[in-house]
């Protein structure tokens, strides 16, 4: 007998009414007034098992309280050159909105080097973008379109992808763990574009690390994906790397200035950083925030990355005769 989603939502709501004060306060930042939609997201993430969804949500709120996630938008990554270094090496941006009003986030998987800042800066930036999306971008879109908009679309640019990118698997698993446990069902579709021939090898490693519900949302598009993506968004919302006929270096398009959604000079990042700076001056202690002081604990270990080590080594051996840049030191222990 199938589960009735409406009944499950009602049961979960009753359980959430019983959480402690600090959790309730944090929960307000999670649902932003869209309580039913939020409960449904966590239920979908646990196949409408109310008990499991309740535990997931309670654990999420505990994580938020213990790590002061509700205050993360008051903590700028500074000095400014550190933030620019993060933006130059962790390529992500908001390129526009779909025809249905969903925010479109672009991620430069192939050209993100993740080597210009501390790991805590990258994790902090990732969570800040998540929180800014949930607290500012999605509520604003909902108001503009007159209906609840609680999800987004992600376009993953594989330009420049090399097998050496598998060296980041442990870090990427950390981010994936954070998203799976605390920001479930926020993405309706993942479109992969500009796929090089080594993608299949990388996908063999990454695919098992993803939850089945996430894998079902992934679509690999031919070329830069422009024609397919124009079915769901206008040309102005296409990321810069999808507006050309062939796969060229996305980093070379940095000269486009504000048109490059990865750039720290792009409107999205300017607004985000400005917002965080403004929030940092509201009801905050007078002492300066120390760079690198933000640390996030994980609810679950990234143990799957250990199991991927043999697969990674196998793929390296397969291509080591033809691809010299894959001779890197594996640090997945």
TrEMBL record:
Which SMART domains does the UniProt entry name for this protein?
CRAL_TRIO_N, SEC14
Q: Which Pfam families match?
A: CRAL_TRIO (PF00650), CRAL_TRIO_N (PF03765)
Q: Cross-referenced Gene3D superfamilies, in alphabetical order?
A: CRAL-TRIO lipid binding domain
- Where does the CRAL-TRIO domain lie? 79-239
Signal peptide (residue range): none
* PROSITE patterns assigned to the protein according to its UniProt record, in alphabetical order: CRAL_TRIO (PS50191)
Q: List residues traversing the bilayer.
A: none
Extract the PANTHER family matched here. CRAL-TRIO DOMAIN-CONTAINING PROTEIN (PTHR46226), SEC14P-LIKE PHOSPHATIDYLINOSITOL TRANSFER FAMILY PROTEIN (PTHR46226:SF6)
What name does the UniProt record give this protein?
SEC14 cytosolic factor-like
| Encoding gene (name) | LOC111453570
